Amino acid sequence: MKNYKKLFLLGFGFFGISIVWPLYNAYIPIFLKDFSLSSTSIGFVMTIDNIFAIFMLPLIGVLSDQTRTRLGRRMPYILIGAPLGALFFSLIPFAREMHLLWFFMLNIIFMNFFMALFRSPVIALMPDITPPKYRSQANGIINFMGGLGALLAYFAGKPLYDKNYALPFWLGALIMLIALMLVVVFIKEDEKYKIKEDKKKKIGNVFSKSFSELKVNLKEVFLSKEKSLLMILLSILFWFIGYNALETFFTSYAKFRIGISESTGAFILGFFSLTFMLFSIPAGFIGAKIGRKKTMTIGLSIVILISILSIASVNMINNTSLVTRLLFIYFALGGIGWGMVNVNSLPTVVDMTTEEKLGGYTGLYYFFSMSANIIAPPLAGFFIDILGYDSLLYFSIASFFVATITLQFVRRGDVK
Q1: What was the pLDDT predicted at 280?
Q2: What are the record keywords, sorted (predicted)?
């Protein structure tokens, strides 16, 4: 595969995005406890980004397919969304200091809106510049960069947070902005996606075309006789329900169930991100070698196993220090499994369509993954309120298991 340098440069887009969300998911639930909210209420608040995403990402993905500007079809969304998303992310600590729930919520809403504005276009650039047979490997490189961003967020975030809880947010916003601007400067879109004089009159129809295309894509999901697209999207839905529940509440689980600090809980998640990052590129090559579905099935099995081991250790070992060390090991192994799942999922989806609809199908991927992220936090929070923090891992295991079952019914989208 050629253009490795170009893919690593594109990976800075995913790198920047992946710095923000681990910090957001690790610390916003803790901040919300300042307002004496229940876990269920916190879970609902943590779905705001996903509510925006479920409505905006499929539409923005299709809209960017139809967009034609001098910069291309994806770049305008990055240039608007990234600076404003970074601004409102950096203001989160100030909003916490104000100790006004409405102000804190308003800041979060604006941040999530602008983050959703550019996510689909950034991710859609990968299949834009990569032939179908190399997309697993390319997505491995992109996810490697994303894992590097998450790793930086968790590992650098802990000492910064312990020194001043505002520092990870300020530095994270700055790094995200710089990373996304590198994408804008160094990734050049194909000339055919840049506006031409004889096509200017068609720009006014972009929105109507986008809505029409979105409806067609959704019909292909639910009404097609061949159900591979529906099955892979359902698999994505369920495994992200399990993953997002853990990501949202693990720092709370660490603090209130195990008895360790939230920053140490985030540090454990950092080991998950470390091995995910290191294994992303090999996971793409494994998917290309033995098949994407088989690779994802193995990965889900690993994630289920480490979740079971985590439950056993927390409940059977009374030594908090030993449990913490074991969780570092389990989550490091889990990152390997998650890499096998996550790296091969998007290429499976986009290889079921044509070049003209890559943004739209990228939007479908995010429609289902973000739907999971809307379902998971309040549902997991509800179980925590009723059954305690032990229910968190059981909830995730059940979701990963269902995803493994639906994945077996996927017949298309594998490496040809």
Answers
A1: 84
A2: Membrane, Transmembrane, Transmembrane helix
